[in-house]
Q: What sequence folds into this?
């Protein structure tokens, strides 16, 4: 089994934003996971890291940058 080196491409401060980003990345064939997706209920502050495999980081950042410019 191959270990995946996950890398952060974005920190989200809203759970729905993190989920939308995850879906957008998946639609482009980019695997994605969200770290700390449910911590907001425990701490009162939501902050989740959107992670992709290291090999997909450049493509993910390019996609995210293109959407931020709109």
A:
């Amino acid at each position: 089994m191959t270990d995946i080196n996950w890398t952060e491409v974005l920190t989200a401060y809203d759970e729905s934003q993190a989920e939308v980003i995850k879906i957008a990345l998946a639609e482009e064939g980019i695997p994605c996971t969200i770290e700390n997706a449910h911590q907001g209920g425990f701490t009162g502050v939501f902050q989740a890291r959107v992670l992709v495999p290291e090999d997909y980081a450049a493509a993910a950042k390019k996609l995210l940058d293109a959407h931020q410019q709109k």
In short: The chain has a mean pLDDT of 85. The CA atoms of residues 11 and 49 lie 5 Å apart. Helices lie at 15-27, 40-43, 57-68.
